[in-house]
Amino acid sequence: MYKLSIDAMSGDLGSSIVVEACLSFIKAHDDVELYVTGKSEELEKLKVERIHIIEARDTIPMDAGIMSVRRKKDSSMVKAVVLANEGETDGVVSCGSTGAFYTSAMLFMKRLEGIEKSCLMAILPTYNEKGVMLMDVGANAQNNAEQLHDFALMGNVYAKYMRGINDPKIALLNIGSESKKGDEAHQEAYKLLENDESIHFMGNIEGRDILNGEVDVIVTDGFSGNIALKCCEGTATTLMKLMKESLMSSLKSKIGALFVKDSLYALKDRFDYKSVGGALMMGFVKPVVKAHGASDAKAFNNAMELAYQMVKNDVVGKMKEGLKE
Amino acid sequence: MYKLSIDAMSGDLGSSIVVEACLSFIKAHDDVELYVTGKSEELEKLKVERIHIIEARDTIPMDAGIMSVRRKKDSSMVKAVVLANEGETDGVVSCGSTGAFYTSAMLFMKRLEGIEKSCLMAILPTYNEKGVMLMDVGANAQNNAEQLHDFALMGNVYAKYMRGINDPKIALLNIGSESKKGDEAHQEAYKLLENDESIHFMGNIEGRDILNGEVDVIVTDGFSGNIALKCCEGTATTLMKLMKESLMSSLKSKIGALFVKDSLYALKDRFDYKSVGGALMMGFVKPVVKAHGASDAKAFNNAMELAYQMVKNDVVGKMKEGLKE
Q: Across the interface, do B228 and A228 touch by the CB < 8 Å criterion?
């Protein structure tokens, strides 16, 4: 039996969508047990086989400061994390605030041996529909070369076993292609990555090439990665808004819009960063999966499926091995 | 008489467009003298009043490594820079490679007193058509808090006197809005900016808000700024390409495209980062203005106009004062 702890309370839409997702998930997977944390009176429907309700009276709201987490040991989020850390479950899923969830993991879950810094990974849509993993996207304000190297090793394992990419192409986000570009940490990281035969290092990648889909994993410090992610997101949002306005700007374009809207809506969906889906946390001893704060049951279900696949494929175990090599 | 040195040789399209631009510029401005560096046999047409031809036998090609600049003292680019540095002219314009031109200025032009690091400024298109200044976009691989503060002061003066913004809104690019976000340099820079009453500091800005046009100047270290600029550029390019493809994807959308293409082309032009127009160099004792490598005469003319306005408004002098306050 694979066991997941599920934080039922921290999302914007309340516990009902989590309840719905849990019931359908259990039905779809007969090798899973769920440990659901939250207020039992809201979880009545989960009194079924293979679901355990773990009472947690406190809730960490979406807008909570990340420091409040420390005082919220009876929250559904922290309890779900602790269950995984203590080995009661094999992984944890929440749709609470990314910052609070990450802080909960930082405070209440052990990191993989040899990992100094955990990180957040996001998958960005690309021109060729493959998508590209970007990590760290903001867990850290600064990273040294060894930490960047660790991110590459973890990303390599994830790309292989979770995204089915045979020989993942890994690049370092930098301000030019030459190995001497960037500050000392990036120059040093370039050397570490170049000399590591366990990965397929492609060299530096610049911001303008992130979305062209030619690499599978982009390694970056949390500061630059956060800015990169949000610049891509902001530009996509701005352009989509302007595109819509420009289609509504004249009678002629309005007529045309009737013909083109299906194609353009598909594009809009693809570059909707809300659907890019939060960020996965890496570097902990158990999979820590974040579903969207405004997740519907389907999105929450996807997050559970991701955690389940990570457990089933022992991705964290393989990261451990990858880090030792 | 305002005097500008003009590098006639370093652009992708050769000297002829520069010659054309110089002739029309002289005609439009009767208070300007031009000192044009290059091979005199290519500059025959410039033998007119108020234009001086300065022989320079060497050329720095667009793809030259920036280190080759050191050995190219007889190049049109270096000669144009030296003329300005030595006070023969009041500013310099080139359409050569940004890296080589910046390096020429670094090597052969003095910096403003008190400025540790010069920087590159780019103006990005925004949602509200105002545009936003981003600086540094890649001259430096790393910047400390004082340098970020200097960028803000120079940006403030430029926004006031060149963009006519009365009380420029200045923000610091960071990974969150709170003052404690980011690494030490950014936290320290926040304090310096917050406590400086000579500027209108708006706090931190995140990557996703760069293009919404709510601030006038965004201050950033060269590493993050380069990544931010190129991520915005890359996302815009990718989306425009996909938009075009999606309009050509079916008969129905092709019909619609006939009606909407004018509106969408206008949008494409606005977010064409090729037309965003290179980068302006700040922190030197004279205006250093880069025109596009693939500039046509009109683009080159615009760059000359920018240098002329900077000289006429004594923007560098005002930066000097701004830095003293």
A: yes
Q: Does A234 touch chain B (CB under 8 A)?
A: yes
B36 touches chain A (CB under 8 A): no
Could you give the ipTM of this predicted complex? 0.90
pLDDT digits (tens, 9 = 90+) for A116-160: 999 999 999 999 989 999 999 999 999 999 999 999 999 999 999
Q: Is A235 helix (H, G, I), strand (E, B) or coil?
A: helix
Q: Kind of pairing, strands B132-135 and B119-124? A: antiparallel
Question: Which is it for strands B217-219 and B169-173: parallel, antiparallel or unpaired?
Answer: parallel
- B124, B129, B130, B235, best to mutate vs chain A, most A CBs in 10 Å: B235
β-bridge pairing A288-290 and A91-94: parallel
Contacts of B243 (CB under 8 A, 6+ apart): A243, A264, A267, B264
Q: Where are the alpha helices (DSSP H) in chain A?
A: 16-28, 76-85, 98-108, 145-163, 184-194, 222-247, 251-270, 273-276, 297-312, 315-324
Q: Using CB atoms and an 8 Å cut-off, which of residues 47-106 of chain A contact chain B?
A: none
In sign, the C-alpha dihedral spanning B26, B32, B37, B41 is positive
For the stretch A73-86, pLDDT in tens is: 999 999 999 999 99
Q: How many Cβ pairs within 8 Å bridge chains A and B?
A: 187
Residue numbers in B near A143 (CB within 8 A): none
Q: Does A177 touch chain B (CB under 8 A)?
A: no
pTM score of the predicted model: 0.92
Cα–Cα distance, B285 to B291 (Å, whole number): 19
Pair A322, A157: CB distance under 8 Å: yes
Q: Are the Cβ atoms of B183 and A142 closer than 8 angstroms?
A: yes
Nearest-angstrom CA–CA distance, A14 and A20: 11
Residue A311 class from Cβ within 10 Å (0-12 exposed, 13-18 middle, 19+ buried)?
Answer: buried
Q: Which chain A residues are closer than 8 Å to B221 by Cβ?
A: none
Q: Is B62 helix (H, G, I), strand (E, B) or coil?
A: coil
